[in-house]
Amino acid sequence: MSLTASTPARPRTRNTAAALLAVALCVSLAACGGAGKKAAAGSGTDANGAKKLVFGFSQVGSESGWRAANTKSIQDAAKAAGFELKFSDAQQKQENQIAAIRTFIQQKVDVIGFSPVVVTGWDTVLKEAKTAGIPVILTDRAIDTQDKSLYKTFIGSDFVKEGTSAGQWLLDAEKANTGTVNIAELEGTTGSAPAIDRKKGFEDLVLKDPRFKLVADQTGDFTRAKGKEVMTAFLKAHKDINVLFAHNDDMAMGAIQAIEEAGLKPGKDIRIVSIDGVKDAFQAMVDGKIEVVVECNPLIGPQVMDLVRKLKDKAEVPARVESKEGVFTKDKAAAELPNRQY
Ligand code: GZL
To answer: Structurally, how many domains does the chain consist of?
Structure first.
């Protein structure tokens, strides 16, 4: 068994073997020119031998380009902060997130973070974290709970505002149209905060206007494949869809494939409004297939780690930190595309 400076020292008996081991250890560390220091810069301690902050993070999954960018932001920022990141990919299953949070509790991590795949069903496991004295930060997606003490802070977007921004663009784009506008809606993961709130923001604004009819709406689970599958079904059932509102770009990109395979022109026969702002969506705007993208910023890793450090140090944190985001129409897409980081 090789001992490094980070291995907790066992109590030593006063026998010769222990004394020899102690001498051997000192000699080996000295001979390696402080290799103990280099060895100490392993996962548990930093180059100065200080214990690293351990952050346990449960990610929703890897369902979209947005999620991939969010994961990279979290991982890069944890590394830059010098934290030990225990990262778990839940593959969009709540039971996997609950299991990961329980593991983090058993591992006695310093802070727990997660992006909840759905809004309900968290109280029990978050009570276990609270009992264990481990602070929790919600990232990206919020939860529905009566007990606000179960988490310390939330950082992410205002999804209702994103839905409203998408709806406002459509109202403006159709203001001269006196006829009926039939809308198909590809919803995000059922029960997730972005799906619930984007739907609310968009429909509360647009469906107040009697010209607009919601003729089809179904979840595409935020994935490209499901978005294509559901849009194909929509097109078989409805010959009169004028607009597609997609809760994220990946479903919009899948829908574009379905629309083209049906012999129709996306952006001409069917107007498309989407949310996220991934590079592929900007390229689709340059190509005239999507007309507007409401940005949803995944690059919150550095802000997350600032909050994690504050929680570890028992410093004050705001209850909610909101991301700054824009709305990009297709005429702006070519100029903005080179700036996109995800
Ligand atoms: C939004 C995020 C959503 C994205 C999707 O903050 O939770 O989940 O819009 C992703 O692309 O799958």
So the answer is: 2
The answer to whether residue 6 is domain-embedded is no
Question: Whole-model pTM above 0.85?
Answer: yes
SS3 (DSSP) at 201: helix
**Residue 169 shares a structural domain with residue 250:** yes
- Say yes or no: 166 and 277 in one domain: yes
Pocket of ligand 1 (CB under 6 A): 63-64, 66-67, 140-141, 156-157, 194, 222, 248, 250, 275-276, 296
Question: For ligand 1, atom 9, which residue shows the shortest CA distance?
Answer: 248
Residue-number span of the structural domain to which 123 is assigned: 54-157+298-324
Give burial (CB, 10 Å; 0-12/13-18/19+) of 161: middle
Separation of CA 222 and ligand 1 centre (Å): 7
Question: How are beta strands 54-59 and 111-114 bridged, if at all?
Answer: parallel
Query: pLDDT confidence of 45, banded at 50, 70, 90?
Result: confident
Distance 120 CA to ligand 1 centre (A): 17
